[in-house]
Structures are given as structure tokens and as C-alpha cells.
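Section 4.2 – Deliverable D4.2 (structural model, holo form)

The reporting period included a commitment to supply a predicted holo structure for the target in complex with (2R)-2,3-dihydroxypropanoic acid. Inputs used:
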Amino acid sequence: MPKAFVTRRIPEPGLAILREVAEVKVWEEELPPPREVLLKEVADCDALVPLLTDRVDGELLDRAPHLKVVANYAVGYDNIDVPACTARGVLVTNTPGVLTETTADLAFALILATARRLVEADKFLRAGKWKTWGPMLLLGQDVYGATLGLVGLGRIGAAVARRARGFNMKILYYSRHRQEALEKELGVEYVSFDELLRRSDFISIHVPLTAETRHLFNAEAFAKMKPTAVLVNTARGPIVDEAALYAALKTGRIAAAGLDVMDPEPPRPDNPLLTLDNAILLPHIGSASIATRTRMATMAAENAAAVLRGELPPNLVNPEAWEKRRR
Ligand code: DGY
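Output (C-alpha cells):
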């Protein structure tokens, strides 16, 4: 029977699917498997189900002569060296679609929570500082009717736009490829990155991490934003230059930030962002609903199982590798 290694305990329905086609080993610890363990485990592995915390690169692939599929338990796959997999005929799959609405909910929750200073207000009350109703107490910004700038209009960006329409927001977007059909459907306006920075009250990031998007939000970008602007990131931490963000938040160059992702994760204890009241920081929980994490598990497992059965997996990232395997 083929062997599959799952790098953390994922919801049981996913493991059940995998067990039908493979002998399954699960890394049961809370923390990811140390690199040496991962390199050892893949040696006789036919399928690997990694998380975004596991680096899959040429070194690992060279230790995994039987590996046929890397079925990532995430939609983002910046933890995987896809060209290195393709070169070796290893299929890479991800979990698109199933986490769209859940992640969009969290992005919108961060927009509301930063605008209305929810975390700060909760801490204020618990600290016993609330003496009476105050006309100037914890004033925030209105979300209703404000301008939202979406960086990226893929599945999650579009789902955030649908929510924003309910709040009567003016919606701008910037992406590498203009999407005219979606523009009409969602009532969104395509603008340059600079214009988005200048006009938005809230900016929400929905692009993958690539060489082009790394530190897209740097000191230069913050300098162009409104002093009342709020930045929300539910995509990947390194898209934001955290040192520049800290400076922008500390000096009032921008008003607030809501981050579900950081660089690195978790943040180091001396990360100065941890000291700021105008930053809400979450431990990468964008897709963390029971239903969505379960669906991600079954999807990753279905992808891996399909490959082990010799079938085309439903969510293949590198079709060139499939061609290569068939040759
Ligand atoms: C992803 O899927 O890429 C998220 O970051 C985790 O669900």
C-alpha cells in the first residue's frame, strides 16, 4: 500500500479518505515536524500532506524518491517550490474555494474591529478604566459609506467586495489583471496601486505572496496613504514590511492595522507591533471555522487520493507535472 505523511493532525474526515488508499502516518505534535523529521519521513512517502508551516523544496524532494503528490492543506502554496516539484514530476495541489467566505468574513471582521477599536475597547473595560458613558470615549471611524481598496480581486477579494456592498462602500481594486466582467457584477472600480493608496479609507490585501508582492506595502506605500487609513492583511505576512508598518502606525502616518498574518509567524516576542493599541494581531485564523477546516481536510485528502489512484487530482497547481508523469 502507498504511504502518506500528514504533517499535523487535520480533521478526521480527511484522514479517513486517505486511509482508504494509503498507509497514513500523522505528525501528532502541536508544533510542525522539525526539518530533520520531515526529511526522514518523506524518504518512503508516496503522498505528502503538508501545511503552510512546512517548507517543501528541492532538498526535501531529493530525499523523497517515491513522492508523487504534495497536497497542501491551504489555498496558498508559497511554502512549496512548485518549479522544483514540476521538474521532478511531483504534482502539487491546494484547497481553493472552500475557504473563500470564511476568510472574507475574517477580513471584514478586521475592517470593523480596527475601525471601531473593538479590541482596545474590550481591554479598556476589563482593565476597569470605564467610568461612565463618554462623548469622546474610544471614537473610531465609520465603515458604512467609506472607500475600500482591495489589492487583488481573486476569490477572496471578490467575496470581501460583496460584503462591502452591504455597507454601501465605494470599492476600488488593483490587480495585475483587470477583470472587467467582475467589475460590473461587483460595482468595483479598477485603479492603479498609487491611486488605491491615495483614495482608500480601508485597504484589504488579497494577493498571493510572490517575488512581486513581497513588501508591496513598504514605507513608500504608507507615505501615500491617508493618515486615517486602515490596512488589513489576511493574505501573507511578508507582503507587508513590518518595520515600515510599525513606523507608520507609531507616527500616525496611518491610523490602524488589522493583521491575521505576520512575518515571521508567530511574531518574535520583541516585535514592536505587539506594543501598539492601533494594531489588531491575530494568529493566522482566516480559514479557522470548523466546517471550512474540515472541508480543507477532505479536499487535500481527495487530491492526494486521486493521485495515488493514478487519477488527475481536482485541484492541480502544476499541470506540467501531470503531463510529465504521463510521458
Ligand atoms: C491558506 O489556505 O492559504 C490560508 O492561509 C490558511 O488556510
